[in-house]
Amino acid sequence: MSELVRFGVSMDRELVESLDRIVEIDHYPNRSEAIRGLVRQELLRHGEIDPQCDVIAIVQLIFHYSVSISRNPIDRYPSLRIITNLQQHIQKEICMKILVVSGKNDEVRSWAHELSNQRQVIGNVTIAATDNLVKELIE
């Protein structure tokens, strides 16, 4: 594990109270863990990670059942691995596809954007973890 660095943070009282609610609702042991978790989420959301690092991601697609989602071959993305592929009707005529994938950050994002940018498809990709974050679970 890397070296911890202490620093001070100033916040409006209302913001601190909101942080304390997050600590309580999400069962963080303290504010520091909550802030670390929130910073990790934001770094993942903004893609502030090495394009070549290994990631685990969730790709979500919503579409009308009559839409034929184009296959997006993974052979152009050597590191990409599909772990889970789930499709379910969430309303009478609306389907949701959830894919859990792993691979290099840039390849996962490119592949996922090709899927989600199809006509009549609503989608997004969420980087759930990087290889470094997964290693933290072991240490």
Can you describe this structure?
- The protein has two domains: 13-45, no CATH class; 54-138, Alpha-Beta Plaits.
- The mean pLDDT is 87.
- The chain has helices at residues 13-25, 31-45, 105-116, 131-138; strands at 54-64, 81-89, 94-104, 121-130.
- A four-stranded antiparallel sheet has the order 2-3-1-4.
- The chain contains four helices and four strands.
- With 139 residues, it is an alpha+beta fold.
- 35% of the residues lie in helices and 29% in strands.
- 12% of the residues are buried.
Put the structure in a nutshell.
By secondary structure, this protein is of the alpha+beta class. Helices cover 35% and strands 29% of the residues. The protein has four helices and four strands; from the N terminus they run H-H-E-E-E-H-E-H.
Topology:
Layout: H1 13-25, H2 31-45, E1 54-64, E2 81-89, E3 94-104, H3 105-116, E4 121-130, H4 131-138
Antiparallel strand pairs: 1-3, 1-4, 2-3
Name the poorly predicted regions: none
Radius of gyration: 18 Å
Average of pLDDT: 87
Annotated CATH homologous superfamily of the largest domain = ACT-like. Chain A, domain 2
What attributes characterize this protein structure?
Alpha-Beta Plaits; 2 domains; four-stranded antiparallel β-sheet
